[in-house]
Amino acid sequence: MWDTSLTTSRETDPDGALGLADSLAERGDGAIRALYERLGSAYAEQRWWPAETPFEVMLGAILTQNTAWTNVERALDQLRARIPLRPEPVLGLAEPVLAELIRPSGYYNVKARRLRCFCAALIEAGGEAALAAMPTEPLRHWLLAINGIGPETADDILLYAFERPVFVVDAYTRRLFRRLGMIDGDEGYERIRQQVEGAIGPDTACFNEYHALIVRHAKEVCRARTPACERCLLSRSCRQRGGE
Prior knowledge:
This protein is mostly helical and 244 residues long. It has helices at 24-42, 54-63, 69-82, 87-92, 95-101, 108-125, 128-132, 136-144, 151-161, 171-179, 189-200, 204-220.
């Protein structure tokens, strides 16, 4: 159980001002844990990732690069209507046909090549069962060696497809952490990931829910161009209240 000494209740701190505005360098672990508690108190359980199978998670993690999830859903629906969502049928599609099916996701020619490359590597490695048997770090290295898979995509797959205790750092995470003064904004991906993982410990369920809560809050309240600061439970802790 976490030490929640930096977590405050709505009654004593309705805007979440305490324990959140300190930088990672000063009170990082406490701020990370307190933010999770605050978001968890404000939203229902998120139940991520929205997919029916681990392989569908993998497809979605690649398709969601540089696009909204609603576009990914449209692409997956078109793909699912054409073939079973398994590596062999995806690889069996001609690249132009695959690209047309995933057109709603944007950058569809690039993503078609990436999907085919990933499916070929997955089959060659022995399929999902073989990957599931690998320790987390070797599996992460394997994913990162595939063309088109960077740290965020790899960690999406690790967390949501293979249920490994890794934290996903995305644009929503950076925006929220930066506005709360928890990072400066120019920190590398690995530094932020390791800081959060160190603060929380190897807790897959927590990383799943924490990332989902950050995405929910950033989409609905802490928006990039038009943040809704007037209804943000974290507004008193925000360095940039009222916009960038």
